[in-house]
Write a structure and sequence with these properties.
Number of strands: 7
Number of domains: 2
Radius of gyration: 22 Å
Distance between the termini: 72 Å
CATH architecture of the largest domain: 3-Layer(aba) Sandwich
Order of helices and strands: EHEHHEHEEHEHEHHHHH
Number of helices: 11
Strand order of the largest sheet: 3-2-1-6-4-7-5
Largest sheet: 7 strands, parallel
Length: 267
């Protein structure tokens, strides 16, 4: 089978509740040439008779679906991710049209071999939560009637898969709009940065436990827009480690009267 740029893109369904939707999503993925389906904590029998009935000839794709417990597990080796949502985000991270943002998931010449990207869909009853949206770098909104804006999960998957299929039919991938292309970093490594930063900011009491989640959302948006390179990520994490070490050293000196303080040593 010839290589398809779509093979790098995984469709992630978070906590899907309807087997008919899962089967229909598998079918439209096969229709449009996508092959990676990942289910996060599915709330239905995704291999049951109802799902199989809707998958039809896409049954092998459905049976090959990977099941993981959390969204970070689904994204661990992904470098770029788009989340679908009907809710507007901040002005810095606007909702984008499918035809404008989806080409960003296709491989670029700068990408290392084997790079994976992801398109994330939320549960049928609530969509993606703010916490789940934080794992994406860009956000997709499908225009619809404002009097009835909520699309069925399988329908939303179909619209996006159709647009992804169009991307490779004689059309060049659109350049990225908000995120740099160079040296994409796996999202698991970015999560390590966020956790390290949150720990440090809690330690210096810039953050407090009851407000840390909302504050960290702003830091996530900032770093997602900045799209640091591997070298920049290593530099940032090194700075954070050194700051944490300095804080611990000062704390130890303060608690031990036998040790000279930092100010004593400086003098």
């Amino acid at each position: 089978m010839p290589f398809s740029p779509l093979s790098a893109i995984r469709i992630i369904l978070v906590a899907p509740a309807g087997p008919l939707n899962v089967g229909s999503a598998a079918r439209v993925m096969a229709n449009m040439g996508l092959s990676q389906l990942v289910l996060v904590n599915p709330q239905c029998n995704y291999l049951g008779a109802a799902a199989r009935r809707m998958a039809v000839h896409a049954l092998p794709l459905l049976e090959a679906a990977r099941v993981v417990p959390t969204l970070p597990d689904a994204l661990a080796d992904c470098h770029r991710a788009i989340a679908t949502t009907a809710r507007p985000r901040s002005p810095e991270t606007p909702l984008e049209l499918p035809e404008a943002v989806l080409p960003w998931l296709l491989p670029w010449p700068e990408d290392p071999p084997g790079l994976s990207t992801a398109l994330i869909f939320g549960p049928e009853d609530r969509g993606l939560s703010n916490a789940e949206l934080n794992y994406a770098q860009r956000f997709l909104g499908i225009p619809s009637n404002p009097e009835y804006p909520s699309l069925n999960l399988a329908q939303a998957v179909a619209v996006c898969c159709y647009e992804l299929g169009r991307c490779i039919q004689g059309r060049s991938p659109a350049p990225p709009v908000t995120v740099a292309a160079a040296n994409p970093i796996p999202m698991a490594q970015m999560e390590g940065l966020y956790q390290q930063l949150e720990t440090l900011l809690l330690k210096i009491e810039y953050l407090y436990p009851h407000t840390s989640a909302s504050r960290m959302e702003k830091f996530r948006r900032f770093f997602n827009r900045a799209a640091p390179t591997n070298q920049e990520l290593a530099m940032l994490r090194g700075i954070f480690r050194q700051m944490a070490w300095a804080l611990d050293t000062i704390a130890e000196s303060s608690s031990d009267p036998e040790k000279p303080s930092v100010s004593d040593s400086a003098g």
